[in-house]
Amino acid sequence: MRMIPMSFLPRIPAAVAATALVLAGLTACSNTPANTPANSSEPTPGETAQLTVAVAFYPFEFVAQRVGGDLVKIENLTTPGAEPHDLELAPQQVALLSSADLVVVQSGFQPAVDAALEQANAKRTVDTASFLTLLPATGDDGHGHGDDDHADEDEHADEDDHADEDEHADEDEHGDEEGDDHGALDPHTWLDPTNLATVAEHVRDALIEARPEASDTLKANTAALVADLTALDDEFKTGLASCQVDAFITSHAAFGYLAHRYNLEQVGIRGIEPDVEPTAARIAEVHQIAKAEGVTTIFFETLVSPVVSQSIAGDLGLKTDVLDPLEGLTPESRGTDYLEVMRSNLASLRTANQCA
Q1: Sheet hosting strand 297-300, strand order edge to edge
Q2: Short-list 313, 329, 327, 321, CA closest to 346
Q3: How would you label 167-190 residue by residue, b for 16+ Cβ within 10 Å and e otherwise?
């Protein structure tokens, strides 16, 4: 190819070149707001930065988002679809506990979070275990139908004589399978909507401390959430008031607070830890309970394998359905938030327990 000598190219006057450079600079700057550095993440004048709220798992994310609204940015330590019981924290998550404006947790549920908080210098912490009444962790809610005295009896019932019980043992001792952590506390407080309303009020107070000028907004948001949770509680009380079957069998014993609140009897195939496989003796016991109580359905959940629940249902010719402990949302969840999934749980219970 023939090259054109440079001497034949037109010369651009220096003044024209300078003007072009100035115009290019103005064009490049035109997309950046005045007085705002490029790539800045800081709020512009007149705006207020969102408060960062670190939450341990989904139910507290739901509360913090409803209470805080646009004032907050939520960081959930448990990724969607993950099982929160065995959560392990990445280094940046540990650091978040110190930098966040508020941390919402329930001590005693996630050991990794408890350990990290001991080392963190958190600005504000709402620990729901410090103000909610925790129930004993048992495989079942027993036949006490929510009575505290019966809950205490169930906790200790098989310490000496479980191995010697006859074929009628399940009439009073349903929850005492091998592997129960007697003396431990049930962490699944959020499955009683009234507990979550109490959590909302504590989150409100902590956020008002962090952003007092937003007090009216935070109070209004909380009042709306509490009203929704109160309505949900009323729906459960009405919907489960008259059922032909009191017992319900679940994949793991996450529903003690729901059973306690609404006078039902929880029977957990597993204990409160969903990854501890049931013994053959426990499965046989669940078979007996299902027959004795007239159970129609074996429930499984979205974050735990349904194989054992399906196997028991198949052995007994029973149905299966989902009862979601709301430890996390997944695309398979029957609803997009806490309220919707809880209403789905109510519908499933009403069908399974033949409620009027």
Answers
A1: 265-270, 247-252, 297-300, 319-322
A2: 321
A3: eebbebbbbbbeebbeebbbbbbb
Indicate the SS3 state at residue 327: coil
The mean pLDDT values, 10 residues at a time, for the chain of 356 residues are 41 42 40 38 63 97 98 96 88 96 96 95 97 86 38 38 39 39 83 98 98 98 98 98 97 96 97 90 97 97 91 97 94 95 98 97
pLDDT computed for residue 302 by the predictor: 84
DSSP 355: B
Helix or strand run (H / E) with residue 298: strand 297-300
Residue 274 · residue 252 · CB < 8 Å: yes
The per-residue pLDDT for 199 is: 98
**Alpha helices (H) along 82-169:** 91-99, 111-119, 148-156
CA 316 to CA 29: how far, in whole Å? 73
Q: What is the pLDDT of residue 137?
A: 87
Instruction: Report pLDDT for 259.
Output: 98
236: tokens are 């459960």
| Cα 305 from chain centroid (whole Å) | 18
**Complete DSSP assignment for 177-201:** -TT--TT-B---GGGSHHHHHHHHH
Burial of 223 (0-12, 13-18, 19+ CB in 10 A): middle
Q: Which residues contact 303 (CB under 8 A, 6 or more apart)?
A: 81, 82, 83, 274, 325, 327, 328, 330
CB 72 within 8 A of CB 78: no
pLDDT score recorded for residue 273: 86
What's the pTM value of the predicted model, to 2 decimals? 0.77
Bridge-partner residues for 243, per DSSP? 355
204 Cβ neighbours under 8 A, 6+ residues apart = 67, 218, 219, 221, 222
